[in-house]
Design the sequence.
């Protein structure tokens, strides 16, 4: 039997100091009640042991990312990158301990040493080189709008529309950007896009630990937005929304961030657009973690859906709103290939399908991409749509 070292001789104050410096300050708040582990989606997956409550203590002891043996370190890296940043643990923790921030500090150390998953290294490189995680040419970023008569943004316009990299490039998800543009055009709002001038918001790579590339990318966007005179940015992705709203101001940004569900509900509420074409289907709405738990936007997407004639809105009774289960795409999870039987998207899709819905509705491009792929891999025949796509249809566009 392998002998175990006494934990006292393993304590590493240098690693503890580095983790604290990189943002793991919440570690000292934790009193080891274990509540976080029971709400973490990995607990529902059930086939992977993810003892979340250990991370704060391991941080205080300097025992995260500290293995010197290659195999042990690989296991640690896998564990550290399992967190998808859904913040279910943060919301339920009696002391609000930010476990994702603790893990992000460990990721920052791993990134500094180049010891992080190859798929994420590639994503970071692509963002640095061409401004998007898909590695698509920068000059094609505005191509989704080619046939739609969308103008380049100018400072006399009301809004800059920033579609997010996935709707800008992914052939299926471009429909979200197109639907948004068509709705804005129908409502008479003046808006424009920046196309190849803008880059990824950088949210995913920051959560993956690539702090320096995030800062570079964010500064480049802020400069472009400032030079263009942008005051309000409308975004399709909750990930862009929180990053522009909560993180860019620390780097000097001075513009307002609006998510499409907020803005489009305002337009409906004010009578500027009226969905009058029937969408006669039972639909279930999945609360994206970043829009719901992290931004408190629960009602607007539901209000949009409820305003559509013929649509019947269903809920996942026990796992809706702040208890929604993550799709698994956050914090770089979209690009990590989890082993079969260890995918939280499978669990979530089952919950959504079990409601009897005919359509799954989301308000996040990451959830949309993750669920599209999951539905295919599970051989299910149920469409996944964004709220804007349904609204666009209900407006007759
Ligand atoms: S719920 Fe909070 S206090 Fe309890 S173990 Fe988890 S992080 Fe620590
Ligand atoms: S953020 Fe989500 S995935 Fe990460 S530890 Fe907390 S509950 Fe688990």
Sequence:
């Amino acid at each position: 039997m392998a002998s175990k070292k006494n934990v006292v001789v393993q304590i590493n104050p240098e690693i503890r100091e580095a983790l604290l410096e990189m943002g793991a300050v919440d570690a000292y708040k934790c009193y080891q009640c274990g509540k976080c582990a029971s709400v973490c989606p990995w607990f529902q997956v059930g086939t992977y042991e993810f003892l979340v409550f250990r991370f704060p203590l391991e941080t205080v002891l300097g025992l995260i990312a500290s293995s010197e043996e290659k195999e042990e370190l690989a296991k640690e890296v896998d564990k550290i990158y399992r967190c998808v940043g859904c913040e279910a643990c943060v919301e339920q923790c009696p002391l609000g301990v930010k476990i994702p921030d603790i893990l992000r500090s460990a990721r920052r150390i791993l990134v500094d040493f180049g010891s992080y998953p190859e798929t994420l290294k590639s994503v970071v490189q692509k963002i640095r080189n061409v401004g998007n995680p898909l590695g698509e040419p920068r000059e094609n970023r505005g191509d989704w709008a080619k046939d739609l008569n969308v103008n380049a943004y100018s400072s006399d316009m009301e809004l800059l529309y920033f579609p997010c990299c996935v709707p800008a490039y992914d052939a299926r998800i471009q429909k979200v950007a197109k639907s948004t543009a068509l709705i804005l055009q129908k409502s008479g709002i003046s808006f424009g896009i920046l196309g190849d001038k803008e880059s990824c918001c950088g949210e995913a790579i920051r959560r993956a630990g690539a702090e320096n590339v995030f800062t570079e990318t964010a500064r480049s966007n802020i400069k472009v937005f400032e030079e263009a005179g942008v005051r309000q940015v409308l975004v399709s992705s909750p990930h862009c929304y929180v990053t522009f709203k909560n993180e860019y101001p620390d780097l000097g940004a001075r513009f307002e961030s609006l998510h499409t569900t907020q803005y489009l509900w305002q337009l409906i509420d004010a009578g500027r657009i009226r969905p009058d074409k029937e969408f006669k289907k039972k639909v279930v709405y999945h609360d994206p973690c970043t829009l719901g738990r992290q931004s408190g936007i629960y009602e607007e997407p539901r209000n949009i859906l409820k305003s559509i004639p013929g649509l019947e809105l269903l809920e996942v009774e026990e796992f809706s709103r702040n208890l929604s289960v993550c799709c698994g795409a956050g914090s770089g999870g979209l690009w990590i290939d989890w082993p079969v039987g260890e995918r939280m998207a499978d669990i979530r899709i089952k919950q959504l399908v079990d409601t009897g819905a005919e359509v799954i509705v989301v308000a996040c491009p990451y959830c949309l991409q993750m669920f599209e792929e999951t539905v295919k891999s599970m051989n299910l025949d149920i469409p996944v749509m964004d709220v804007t796509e349904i609204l666009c249809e209900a407006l007759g566009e």
Notes: The pocket of iron/sulfur cluster (ligand 2) is lined by residues 40-41, 52, 83-89, 99-100 (CB under 6 Å).
